[in-house]
Design brief:
single chain; 102 residues; mainly alpha; 2 domains; 0% strand
Length: 102
């Protein structure tokens, strides 16, 4: 809602005022980004102090373990599909060798 009010108000402003406004928004965005990084670091440091391990490293390890499990399941599924396909081909060859039943 506020963005619409600011956009409408900005239409009547001079080019210099619009540039200052955009510069101010850019400065605020950089400040918020910097503040976010600082808060993330504080959170990670606190987690390290309380849990005895790095939160980011723990999340990365958990993500890696989950990925490894998903890849292993996919590998098992592909091996089952390969075996099933090979069995079907072998049955088809056996049927073709015997010929049609009359």
């Amino acid at each position: 809602m506020n963005a619409g009010k600011h956009d409408t108000a900005m239409e009547g402003c001079s080019l210099d005022a619009q540039k200052r406004y955009q510069s101010n928004l850019s400065l605020r965005a950089r400040h918020l980004q910097s503040s976010s990084r600082a808060q993330e670091k504080k959170l990670n440091d606190l987690y390290l102090q309380l849990m005895g391990s790095d939160r980011v490293a723990a999340e990365s390890a958990a993500g890696f373990d989950g990925l490894e499990a998903a890849l292993k399941k996919r590998q098992n599924d592909l091996e089952w599909l390969l075996q099933t396909t090979e069995s079907a081909i072998a049955r088809k060859r056996t049927t073709a060798d015997v010929g049609p039943v009359r």
